[in-house]
Amino acid sequence: MNTINKKNEIDIIGVQIDFGASQKGVAMGPLSIRYAGLKPSLRAMGYNVHDKGDIIPPEDGMSLRNMIRFEQVNATNKELYDAVTDTLDKGHFPLVLGGDHSIAAGSVSAVAKHYEGEGEIGIIWIDAHGDWNSDKSTVSGNMHGMPYSAVCGWGPSSMVDFGQDPHYVSTAHCVQVAGHDFDKAEAERMKEAGMTVFPITDVDTRGMYEVMKDAIKIAGDGTVGIHLSFDVDAITPEYAPGTGTPVPNGITAREAFLAAEMIADSGKLISMDLVEVNPILDERNKTGILASDIIQLALGKKVY
Ligand SMILES: [Mn+2]
Q: Does pLDDT of 2 surpass 90?
């Protein structure tokens, strides 16, 4: 049942931040995922669950047109980095609940650094967006569009290194799955950096099963394990209406479930973020429940 590198201990770390996004409300995401029954569900699977509570970002900080509220985002990432490092040092599995996706710069960086002496980590990033902008390429200035490039060393310098002396993740083990809303300059950066992208058109033609088989190979072979960063906006708004940056015609809930199940079956999952649940825009916590379901499946829940 428990597939996460034989670790039976899960630490939940929430991050109540929406400063990385223009649409407010994802700061309440960790609460909505907990209200969906996440903790009892994980305990029923046999896990020992430790809720470390939520990180609250500072109220004030500097802002730039091309890096909105960057001081608050970076300070929050430093706090999250320390929390995830503490969890990994204890041998527990970090489950990070967003919050906007800017938090992945903190969580992934902590995981990459923790395993530095053992080898490289791989990343599977399931998202409608690339999250591969920098302060130069960004159109919106929203920092939740930059974390994936930041952990690879290609993001804004203060998001790449917020005081932690980062170990960059090699793009050779990084995969983007189900993207279909890339900025032009962002896509060029991803190609230049050697990212593997399986856009939603690949899901259409080859199916999620074949795409994920390849994604797990790229992120999992020759690495110490896989970090899953799951943005609920990958899922089409009919199933996941509660998200800040919805994009029409995304993947289905079943495709998301299959991806999560396959990652669990790989036995290589070492850490996970679930981000961008926005309860203000949601319908009766539908998206919070969906997020909880995806987490359970990624952590090994079986339907039969
Ligand atoms: Mn994202």
A: no
How far apart are the CA of 187 and the centre of ligand 1, in A?
A: 14
Kindly give the distance from the C-alpha atom of residue 300 to the centroid of ligand 1, in angstroms, as a whole number: 23
Which position has the token pair 């990652």? Answer: 263
Residue in the structure block whose two tokens are 């981000």: 275
C-alpha count within 13 angstroms, C-beta hemisphere, residue 250 = 27
Q: Model's pTM, two decimal places? A: 0.97
Q: What is the pLDDT of residues 117-159, one digit of tens each?
A: 999 999 999 999 999 999 999 999 999 999 999 999 999 999 9
Asked if residue 113 has pLDDT above 80, the reply is: yes
Alpha helices (H) in the chain, listed in sequence order: 29-35, 38-44, 70-89, 104-114, 147-151, 157-160, 184-193, 200-220, 253-266, 286-298
Active site residues: 101, 127, 129, 131, 144, 231, 233, 276
Are 233 and 246 in contact, with CB atoms under 8 Å apart? yes
Residue 76 exposed, middle or buried by CB count within 10 Å (0-12, 13-18, 19+): buried
The class that CATH gives domain 9-298 is alpha beta
**Which residue is listed with tokens 């203000």?**
280
- pLDDT attached to residue 116: 97
Residue 156 carries which side chain, given as an amino acid letter?
Answer: P
H or E stretch covering 50: strand 48-55
What distance in angstroms lies between residue 55's CA and the mean position of ligand 1's atoms? 19
Distance from Cα 101 to the centre of ligand 1, integer Å: 5
Say yes or no to pLDDT of 5 above 70.
no
**How many whole angstroms from 180 Cα to the centroid of ligand 1?**
12
Nearest of 149, 136, 162 to residue 61 by alpha carbon:
162
Tokens in use for 195? 């990212």
Q: Taking a C-beta distance cutoff of 8 angstroms, is the pair 79, 55 a contact?
A: yes
- Residues whose beta carbons lie less than 5 angstroms from ion ligand 1: 101, 127, 131, 231
Distance CA 39, CA 81 (A): 22
